[in-house]
Amino acid sequence: MxxxxxxxxxxxxxxxxxxxxxxxxxDAVLTVRVGEAGATAAAxxxxxxxxxxxxxxxxxxxxxxxxxxxxxxxxxxxxxxxxGVRFGVVECTGHxxxxxxxxxxxxxxxxxxxxxxxTAAAxxxxxxxxxxxxWLELARELFRASPGAIRHAVLLTDGKNESDRTGALEAALxxxxxxxxxxxxxxxxxxxxxxxxxxxxxxxxxxxAVLEDAELAGDFRRLVERAMGRTVPDLRLRLTTLPYxxxxxxxxxxxxxxxxxxxxxxxxxxxxxxxxxxxDELREYHLxxxxxxxxxxxxxxxxxxxxxxxxxxxxxxxxxxxEAQAVVAYLTDDLALSSVPDEHVARATGQAELGRAVRAxxxxxxxxxxxxxxxxxxxAVRLATGLGNTEILKRxxxxxxxxxxxxxxVKEGVRPRDGFSLVLGSTVSAxxxxxxxxxxxxxxxxxxxxxxxHCGHMVRPTANRCGHCGKPPAEVPS
Length: 478
Prior knowledge:
With about 475 residues, this protein is of the alpha+beta class. It contains eleven helices and 22 strands. Strands 4, 5, 6, 7, 8, 9 and 10 form a seven-stranded mixed beta sheet that branches. Strands 2-18-17-11-15-14 form a six-stranded mixed beta sheet, with no helix packed on it.
């Protein structure tokens, strides 16, 4: 696609291609970068639609700081909308009601409509139940009735989804999948983090806890501004497999971990994964393929699949962008080659184990098993430290103390919202390039892995060429 006024797209693949005869899977990490997304402004920004879904159930009235924080956050978010964005404010209780604009179609942001929306937000009153499926269903209807290549919602709640029919939220999420993105936030101490996690996972957003009511407005502003900064509406990963390989799973692993396997669209051996809208950003995906070693020739590269990036152009046609990447396998009996983990894959699996330990610790704490919580959170501290995941360490620090000897103890007076923040933050990944756990060199490998001076990936000490960029790794930089 691209001319100089178009965004830049980069796709890189990291893997250890060497397989032992007993291996039945190939793991790889795909790093996707989009740059200069703001360049699309030269040709006009894409149509954008934004909805604010605000819980106005009766529980939002106590303490009254919650509903007041919600009103103020709506005003701040509305003020953050650029001219031309279609938007609306929805009152959410046991049902959903569009409170601004009054008509069935979304308003177009300008000075007048922003003023009217602020007035409508100031009139939000708490009273009623909580049925999140109705909130999402109305959002879907409103987005479908309004043009908008990029559709985004912010959902705020303070309670459990107790007014919904059994299975209604899951059914609504299935219908809303791919229709719009949604960031979900919980305020107060009496809501269910797993509800928000399901919403964010299916609708390609984030979920988090509001630690202090006064922080809500700033969070709303950041979420809306980030949504408006996304100017690439339709970026997809396309994987083509071979007769002896098939997809086991694909997960987003940075900036947060989300299993996306069920969101893939398959046709014969072509598999396509919609990744949503993008701005200037980087994301990583963990790709795992099942392989049949018996069908691979030994001591030679065999292609397992190819991965490309595709977008839709102005006419709706699909256009490949960036350079296609090959997933390859090399069957060998040399354990010195097959047993060295790829740096990016090791980080992804380490992050998954960190998230598991964090959530297991919270589950133990919730059932008053302090010893088990300490054991799991102690493991989480060690993993987060090794991964350089300062965000999870910060969230853990609200619940536990770590002594100079590494001993972990649970703080007194832990608030539920601090635990909710930890659970929802358990999927937050370390920044690519942060320190990963050191791995010992495999026996017979001739020393520690070296860093390629061209691309920065780790290579075997005896390698003549980097397995990632194909160039001679030269010497380890000083």
